[in-house]
Amino acid sequence: xxxxxxxxxxxxxxxxxxxxxxxxxxxxxxxxxxxxxxxxxxxxxxxxxxxxxxxxxxxxxxxxxxxxxxxxxxxxxxxxxxxxxxxxxxxxxxxxxxxxxxxxxxxxxxxxxxxxxxxx
Length: 120
What we know:
- By secondary structure, the protein is an all-beta fold.
- It contains no helices and 11 strands.
- It has strands at residues 3-7, 10-12, 18-25, 34-39, 45-51, 58-60, 68-73, 78-83, 92-99, 107-110, 114-118.
């Protein structure tokens, strides 16, 4: 069955960095666009970034552009999110998700999430 398992979250000071990973199994990762989505405490889901199936195309929310980098290693069945210059507002549960199609904002599988807390 399809599984997405995030890791790498934690507590970090403002200005710090974290690298999230998402291990995929049960499907061919290289066939799908993938995304990172986050949910801050008490708020709704916020799309963060997309990456094309081959990794050659990436898209970012304005709130993270220039600070976050999405990448993937299809040979290792793993998706990544490198987060630099972290801000208090980046505190959230971060989810990786598989896109149903490259052009839609619909996701058919989600991971369980990993908590990122930015605090001094």
